[in-house]
Amino acid sequence: MFHPSHFAAVVLFALFASIVFGITQRETTRRMIHYGIYCFVLFVGSAIVLSWLMFLIAR
Amino acid sequence: MATEQNKNVAAGSGFVYLPLIAGWLVPGAGHFLLRKWTRGALLSASILGMFILGIAMQGNLYSGASDILHILGLVGDLGNGLLFVFSKLLGLGADPVQVTTADWGTRFIVVAGLLNVIAAVDAHNLRTGRKS
């Protein structure tokens, strides 16, 4: 069985979802890559920001 | 020029919904039918990877429709097409969620299904020439 950490799960989720979003939401290869990277950064970045917010609220 | 060629390929003869249905049943198959090998391989790897990781995390495969959340989960799972059917037949997926990773696994499986639907619709758009 596979038991990833929270962060590993977020990165895997972001990676797979970003690839599909990039390919399906843009037309040219260059724009697909840019949009995929953009989605990946937003997924992981927002998870990190929200995690810190929850950490600070919980203190 | 390249765009015209792509649109000519996309507007070929045959059943127009075939890439949509094939893409839903088998992740990436809709793009393979349209000879979009790289896109199909990446979509297939992503969706299959997400589904397999979800199963490996002991995610739950929805079966009943006891409440609205279960119905929505089942709809998401059904997006996986044959993956869902075969996994059900093989008895894969844990029933009750007992560990945290199993809950994530359940989400991975549902999202894999939703991403597969997006990919299948993309294949349909390529087939109809709406997208190049």
Question: How would you describe what is shown here?
Answer:
The complex is a heterodimer of chains A (59) and B (132). Chain A has 59 residues and is an all-alpha fold. Chain A has one domain. In chain A, 85% of the residues lie in helices and 0% in strands. Chain A contains two helices and no strands. In chain A, α1 packs antiparallel against α2. The mean pLDDT of chain A is 95. Chain B has 132 residues and is mainly alpha-helical. Chain B has one domain. Helices cover 68% and strands 0% of the residues of chain B. Chain B is elongated, with a radius of gyration of 16 Å. Classes of the chains: A mainly alpha (59), B mainly alpha (132). At the A-B interface, α1 of A face α4 and α7 of B.
Query: Which chain pair has the greatest contact?
Result: A-B, 16 and 26 residues
Q: How many structural domains does the protein architecture of chain B include?
A: 1
For the largest beta-sheet of chain A, the strand count, sense and barrel status come to:
none
Strand content of chain A: under 5%
Mean pLDDT of chain B: 89
Compute the separation of the termini of chain B in Å: 12 Å
Helix content of chain A: over 70%
The description of the largest β-sheet of chain B is: none
Spell the H/E element sequence of chain B: HHHHHHH
Helix and strand content put the structural class of chain A at: mainly alpha
For the record, give the distance between the C-alpha atoms at the N and C termini of chain A, rounded to a whole number: 34 Å
Oligomer: heterodimer
**Residue ranges of chain A: pLDDT <50 for 5 or more in a row?**
none
Q: Provide the succession of SSEs of chain A.
A: HH
Low-confidence stretches of chain B: 1-5
Q: How many DSSP helices of chain A?
A: 2
Radius of gyration of chain A: 14 Å
Number of strands of chain A: 0
Shape of chain A: flat
